[in-house]
Amino acid sequence: MLPANKNSVTKRLDAAAFTCAQTGKKFTALRRAVFGLILEARTPVTAYELLDRLRVSHKGATPATVYRALEFLLDNDLVHKVESLSAFIPCADAGQHDHAAQFFICRHCGKVAEIEDEAVVEALGHAAAKLGFRAGNIIVEAEGLCADCLASAR
Ligand SMILES: [Zn+2]
Ligand SMILES: [Zn+2]
After folding, report:
1. Cβ–Cβ contacts within 10 Å for residue 13, how many?
2. Which of 9, 96, 130, 140 could be joined to 102 by an S-S link, Cβ 3.0–4.6 Å?
C-alpha cells in the first residue's frame, strides 16, 4: 500500500479523475470521497468503516451508497477487495493494469502488499486444468508478517 500522505492521496485522486474523464466515466464527488478514504487508510478498510467515515462529509450516505461507489472503484481497478478480510485497499499500480493480483497481509500491522505475478496465476491455472476444473477468479492471499514487522521484532 502507498504511504497515506495528503499529497499522494490528492495525486491519486486527480489521476483517477483524469483517467475516468478520458474514458467517459463519471468520477463523481461521492466516488472520489470513497476512494479518498481508502487511500488515506493505512490498512484495508471494510465497507462499514467506509460508511462511518463517509458520513462525516456525506451525512445521508447509506450502505448502498458505499457499495455502489465501491463497485465503480473495483470495476475500474482503482481498488481491490481483500477477500479474506472483506476489506478494500487502493490498487498499488494506480489502476494501470487489468490483472489478477496476489496479496500479502501482515497480521501484525495490517498492511497489505500487492504483487502481480503471472507465474502464480499460470501455475494455479495448470493445476486446475489437471483436475478438469476451469478456474475463474483466482484469489491468492497470504497472511503472515511483513518485512518491517519482522525487522522490529528482532
Ligand atoms: Zn492492483
Ligand atoms: Zn507488518
Report:
1. 18
2. 140
Q: What pLDDT, in 10s, does the model give residues 81-139?
A: 999 999 999 998 766 666 678 999 999 999 999 998 989 988 999 999 999 998 888 88
Q: 3: CA distance to ligand 1 center in Å?
A: 15
Q: Is 98 in contact with 109 (CB distance < 8 Å)? A: no
Distance, in Å, from the CA atom of 81 to the CA atom of 132, rounded to the nearest integer, reads: 28
* For the CA of 152, the nearest ligand: 2
pLDDT at 67 over 90: yes
Task: Give me the residues near ligand 2 (ion), CB cutoff below 5 Å.
Answer: 106, 108-109, 146, 149
Q: State in Å: Cα 79 to ligand 1 middle.
A: 7
Predicted TM-score (pTM) of this structure: 0.88
